[in-house]
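It is worth pausing here to work through a concrete case rather than discussing structure prediction in the abstract. The textbook approach is simple: state the sequence, then state the predicted structure, then interpret. We follow exactly that order.
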Amino acid sequence: MTEAAEMAAMDPVTADDDERRQAQVAIHVDRIAEQGYTIVENAIDPDLVEALNAELERLERDLDVKPAKNDFEGTRTIRIYNLLVHGKVFERIPIHPNVLPIVEGVLDKGCLVSSLSSISIMPGETAQPIHADDQLIPIPKPHPPVVCNTMWALTDFTEENGATRIIPGSHRFDHNPDYFGTYDSIPAEMPRGSVLIWHGSLWHGGGANRSSERRVGIAMNYCAGYIRQQENQQLGIPRAIAKGFEPRLRELVGYSVYNALIGHIDKKNPVFLLDAGGDHRMVWDI
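Step two, the predicted structure:
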């Protein structure tokens, strides 16, 4: 009997749970391949949702954040960027066990944090232009996923309050949407604590908020390890903060090497910059 089989025999509940988790991940990955998106309902513990909401409220006050003056970011939308520098609670987002395995299934385990920001759509906001998150990457479409993004619902997402609007199957189109074009879309409605995950080629956009309450979400975006990140994580996150990240988060923000080659520094894994050890073998050493 193999070691894995012996462990499963000793702890069948754990083995069964792991199989169920893997099966659920596979279902979500297949949905993204087919429809371009999936929703993981109630993925986030209510205590974490409360903590994130409280931190965003604090940051909005402390940083005196105001809406932008363009239609894409929204003139009645509060956005806070580079959240990993603003508090320990945000470090839990990129590595969340109910979300990251699905993203890894879409991209691979060499994926990176592309950006981490909050999006709070206030009453009266108009709909964001429909777009694809990878449309500035100059490669022909359709193509394998190079971007996989997620939206964390810190409030209920409804059609009335501006739930993200999506066009299922559009990740297979051979072109990008026209800015300010008019397209039929559906709202990705989901209860607070859920997460929307989508292929970077999916056409989508924030909805109009016709309610009297804010729609609050966190955009946790990932990219393939060979694609440049949307927010420059290595320059945007001081090393003193990155040193405090757990190993997987260090890898996700770029202190890692993709396929034993891409991202090295003088044939070393850049994690050495954080005074950490690691496997520095390169592709030609394997």
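Step three, interpretation. Confidence is low (pLDDT under 50) at residues 1-10. The radius of gyration is 20 Å.
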